[in-house]
Amino acid sequence: MNSPPENTLPGAGGFSKLAYLVVDDFENFRISMRHMLRSCGADNIELVANARSAVQYCTYNHVDVVLCDYNLGEGRNGQHILEELRYKKLLKRSSLFLMVTSETSREIVMGAREYQPDAYLTKPINRAMLEKRLGSLISQRNALLPINREIDRENYPEATSLCLEALTRLPRYKTWLMKTLGELYFLLGDLSHSIKIYDEVLAKRELSWASFGRCKVLLANQRYDDAVESLQRLIEKHPDYMEAYDLLAEGLERQNRPGQAQRVLEQAINHSPNALRRQKHLAELAESNQDMEKAADAWRHTVSLGMHSIHDSPKHYLALANTLCDLSEGTTASEGQALAGEALKTLATMEKRFSGQEALELRSQIIQCRVHAGQENTKDADATLEQIRTKLENTSQVGLDTELDYAKTLFRLNHAGEAKELLAELAEKYSSDPVALRKIDNLLDEPVGFRTKIKARRLNREGIAAFESGNLKEARLIFDKALKIIPDHPALNLNQVQVLMKEHENTTETGNLMELCQHHLDRLADLPEQHGQYRRYLALQRKLKGQRQ
């Protein structure tokens, strides 16, 4: 392939060989863009007014250049179009996407940058500006076309060879070639060559993409400390490099520092609040950290951003409703009522938006039931529970998450026996799935609202600290308080057994202590063999038996 001269634009011939799509809700602007493109030599030009038409056209036609306005009126904007085209792989790597905008707000600009358009064109646009900016991009496109074709085909070894060959032939594009080489080696799993590329670039000039690429390799090599420190420095120097925040949060999670990971994502969202997947990640992290207020806020943003996004999902609505349900439970004052009302409204919106899906309607009713119970609305809670039972009798397959949610609701409505039977069946059914078993164990251990759960966990930590410091009397009193909150909690009962056994070793009055130990062990007589505490339970049973002999 003969490349165009390095210091010239492609000319009319270069423009004429490409297919163009202009997306703008104003007809006069679309027509004006067509005139300017034709004057540059373009011929194959399609004009559309909205996101639906743009995506549909790209689904059935190859497009080399998309010129898309950011603001398209009501509904989806240019960011949503780029997001969907990338997700559905309707744009080749060699295709160009130019965002046309008159928007200047930081929030909108940062949001659009998240999906990496090839360039921005700021209105008003004239022919000279268009020819210069687009011509330069077309020259680069033509020069790098063979490499991008192989990447589209996922033929990474050939793409790597072409990049290496082009380094001497196309020095003008060395930065692009080095960046692409680092990414290709990473995709091939050749981490040593990948980091070598990034180190070579950084030795000559500190570029943020090279620092970021190097951190990805460090993380893949499980060098978590080095990756986290490097990412923190990168963010300090380049606070708008949003991908670094996401990677830093991932690194902190791998270091088992979820609280710090959450704060990093909060910092990122202050810079760029319109990234759906980052809001979702923050919501999940906040939930795992039991920061339910922050989780609810992040889920609200996730749902809102999903209204026009390809990443919209009913799971976001269910997660928001679940979080609001937890926050409203046991709080019947105006604040609790408002949260409960928002949960019910969220579920109603989901059912309308994703109508006709029986599984979703069932999940919705399960959460509704718990919302009513949390507001002491017993009549509606019982009526909804009967509807759920009827549906479950007529449903052949129910997913694990739905069954766990149902068990949680049964616990909340004081049907603990039925809930435990269901969890025992699930433990047997998913006996070879460690992730599922962990979820089952967690619910079996703490079948209570999150506020109660947090209190019991705090008491558990205090009891362990008292035990480890040798203050057995205090430890025993603390575990008693925790067990009044969650009487059947396996770890709490076993912790109390260990305290009592330690007391037994230090006193001659042993009869009552042994009876108390047996009492706590008897509470766990139905503990499934698959439970994470089962081996500990058996060990303490044997130890108690030995001490009694």
From TrEMBL:
Keywords: Phosphoprotein, TPR repeat. TPR repeats lie at residues 456-489. It comes from the Bacteria. PROSITE patterns: RESPONSE_REGULATORY, TPR. This is Tetratricopeptide repeat protein. SUPFAM superfamilies: CheY-like, TPR-like. The keyword Phosphoprotein applies. The keyword rRNA-binding does not apply. InterPro entries: CheY-like_superfamily (IPR011006), Sig_transdc_resp-reg_receiver (IPR001789), ST_Response_Regulator (IPR052048), TPR-like_helical_dom_sf (IPR011990), TPR_rpt (IPR019734). Pfam families: Response_reg (PF00072), TPR_19 (PF14559). SMART domains: REC (SM00448), TPR (SM00028). The modification 4-aspartylphosphate is found at D69. Residues 19-138 form the Response regulatory domain.
